[in-house]
Amino acid sequence: MRRIALPAVAALLLALALTLAAPAGPAGAADGPAVRLSATQAGTGGSVTVNGTGWRPRTLLMMLVCGRATPDRGVIGGTNSCANGDGRAVTTDGDGRFSRRLPVTEPPVPCPCVVHVATVTGARAEADTVLEVAGHPVAPLPAERSAGRLAVLSDTRLTGSGGLLTWFGAPPDRTLVFTVGNTGTGAIENPVFQVGTAHGVFAPEWDERQWHGTLAPGKKAQIRLPVELSAGAHGDYTVTLKYAGRVLAEQPWGVGRPWGVTLFWILLCLVVPAALFRIGMGVVNRVRPRRPGRAGHRRRLPRPAAPSRPPRPAALSRLPRAAALLPLPRSRTSGPPTPPAGPADPTPTLPWFTPDSAPDGPAGRSSAPHDDSPTSPTTPTTKGPT
């Protein structure tokens, strides 16, 4: 009996272990974010409870009812196919879970419909679950354009740098570089990508960029797409790459502040008031009346006329130029010279002539007085001892 009881106990313990391990299977398989509805069908005006698990802790999410979408193909047309006005925001808890009621409204496009949940900030993450909106029209999904499927094979990067004009507020621009591969069975010709730029938590602004070329199945290619922001943009931006309604990659972009614009406004605030002050002071100086005898406004006296030079004597004009440049002897007596009592002799007396050799006889002598009597000897006497 003991030999039979031991295998039975072992089999019972094994069955119990398998029973306890069975519920943990689905929870361990759900590694990524997932959503679950309290009801898979609801009419317009009703509501459903959306429960989510596997999300990042403390993350802001957006819940929308979208048409023309399936969990396999995603939301075709992006958020333009969703009822954006009746969406709800929710924040996950510390375990990455949430629960929030969502009103059911008709999307702008026909069903099939889904409840689309996506992150608002941080890394991109999204999940869809089927919702049947009662009374809303249903239309088949548009056929895929080709059997090709693009997948990003490398990390995206932004190349380029700003110049002097960007420092003064010109639009910043970069080039988004990435490598894609065709994982489908058909060729892809001239694919059209959507490049979106979002500032902070705001919705991205999308621009279409077409790559010219053909990508055969199993091939890869490096693609470069231009990205440009508006003039004066600065701060933290996120560049999002989308193809056929699917988000392929996201790249953060930190744009510096255009300090040249700030410097311009500072100089403008300093120069303009100074110029206005100078103009105002000039107008005041011209308008106000001038007061006589005011300090700082001295009357300018007229300059005295220069004395006229006496005419040059004719005798000096006949002399050599070197002799005419010799200085005249200065008078030893102070004060103005005494005019002669007699009539003025028109012939001047030159200092380098001796009294006996002066021109025109004794009338032109300028040396010391001496006796001119007839009795005086006419010949000079020799000086010295006799």
Structure in words:
The protein is α+β, with helices and mostly antiparallel strands and 386 residues long. Among the domains are: 32-134, Sandwich (Immunoglobulin-like), CATH 2.60.40; 150-259, Immunoglobulin-like. It has 6 helices and 20 strands. The protein has helices spanning 2-21, 24-29, 164-167, 259-287, 314-318, 321-324, and strands spanning 34-37, 41-43, 47-53, 60-66, 69-70, 74-75, 88-91, 98-103, 113-119, 126-134, 150-152, 157-159, 173-182, 188-189, 192-199, 205-210, 214-215, 220-228, 235-243, 246-255. The strands form 6 sheets. A 5-stranded mixed beta sheet has the order 2-10-9-4-7, with no helix packed on it. A hairpin with a 6-residue loop joins strand 9 (113-119) and strand 10 (126-134). The longest helix is centred in the C-terminal third of the chain and has 29 residues, at 259-287. The N and C termini lie far apart (194 Å). 15% of the residues are buried. Residues 1-6, 16-30 and 363-367 have low confidence and may be disordered.
Summarize the structure.
With 386 residues, the protein is α+β, with helices and mostly antiparallel strands. It has six helices and 20 strands.
Provide the fold topology.
Elements: H1 2-21, H2 24-29, E1 34-37, E2 41-43, E3 47-53, E4 60-66, E5 69-70, E6 74-75, E7 88-91, E8 98-103, E9 113-119, E10 126-134, E11 150-152, E12 157-159, H3 164-167, E13 173-182, E14 188-189, E15 192-199, E16 205-210, E17 214-215, E18 220-228, E19 235-243, E20 246-255, H4 259-287, H5 314-318, H6 321-324
Classified by CATH, the class of the domain at 150-259 is Mainly Beta
What is the molecular shape? elongated
CATH H level, superfamily name of the domain at 150-259:
Immunoglobulins
For the termini, the CA-CA separation is 194 Å
Total of helices: 6
Total count of strands: 20
Q: Could you name the CATH topology of the domain at 150-259?
A: Immunoglobulin-like
Structural class, from helix and strand content? alpha+beta
Over all CA atoms, what is the radius of gyration? Answer: 56 Å
Beta-strand fraction estimate: 25-35%
Signal peptide: 1-29
Region (Disordered): 288-315, 327-386
Transmembrane segments: 263-284
Biased composition (Pro residues): 304-313, 336-349
